[in-house]
């Protein structure tokens, strides 16, 4: 939760818009709260069927923008389109599924947007080891397109987003992929 608040505050303080899965509870709620509290704009994108599971109507009404989709595929596509970078905080199977899909799209040449693992307390170490293993076994032939940027803090995640996106990040959007 602390990392979520820190990430949100860093996004807001940097003048970035948070584009995220619309959840107002848990870590993602903390990210949105931190971004909004630091003066940032927040766009939530949530499938209709998750509105009462991952959010409250009151909290959703406080977002700057809310996009309600019919399904998860629409949600991910819109988040991808509206974002200049992707940051993964520690999370569950949904987080892994979404960050792997974004890396797959990068491997296929669909984008060159930075993918950042916010490696709080070494959370993403096993994932990084798995990616290294897949590469060494010959299953990732374009590793330079798949290599996520790994940082140890939420603030460092935004610093590296700003560095790697230079011109577009200062006026663009940052997506946080977590709990979607």
From TrEMBL:
Its EC number is 3.2.2.n1. Keywords: Cytokinin biosynthesis, Hydrolase. The keyword Hydrolase applies. One of its GO terms (biological process) is cytokinin biosynthetic process. GO terms for molecular function: AMP nucleosidase activity. SUPFAM superfamilies: MCP/YpsA-like. GO terms for cellular component: cytosol. InterPro entries: LOG (IPR005269), LOG_fam (IPR031100). The keyword Endoplasmic reticulum does not apply. Belongs to the LOG family. This is Cytokinin riboside 5'-monophosphate phosphoribohydrolase. It comes from Neomesorhizobium albiziae. The lineage of its organism: Bacteria, Pseudomonadati, Pseudomonadota, Alphaproteobacteria, Hyphomicrobiales.
């Amino acid at each position: 939760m602390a990392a979520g608040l820190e990430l949100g505050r860093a996004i807001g303080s940097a003048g970035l818009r948070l584009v995220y899965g619309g959840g107002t509870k848990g870590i993602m709620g903390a990210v949105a709260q931190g971004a909004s509290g630091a003066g940032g704009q927040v766009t939530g994108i949530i499938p209709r069927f998750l509105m009462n599971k991952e959010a409250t109507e009151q909290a959703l009404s406080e977002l700057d923008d809310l996009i309600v989709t019919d399904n998860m595929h629409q949600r991910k596509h819109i988040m991808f389109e509206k974002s200049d970078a992707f940051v993964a905080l520690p999370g569950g199977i949904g987080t892994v599924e979404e960050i792997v899909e974004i890396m797959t799209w990068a491997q296929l040449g669909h984008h060159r947007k930075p993918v950042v693992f916010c490696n709080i307390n070494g959370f993403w170490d096993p994932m990084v080891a798995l990616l290294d293993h897949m590469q060494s076994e010959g299953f990732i032939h374009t590793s330079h397109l798949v290599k996520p940027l790994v940082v140890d803090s939420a603030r460092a995640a935004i610093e590296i987003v700003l560095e790697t996106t230079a011109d577009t990040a200062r006026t663009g959007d940052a997506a946080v992929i977590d709990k979607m």
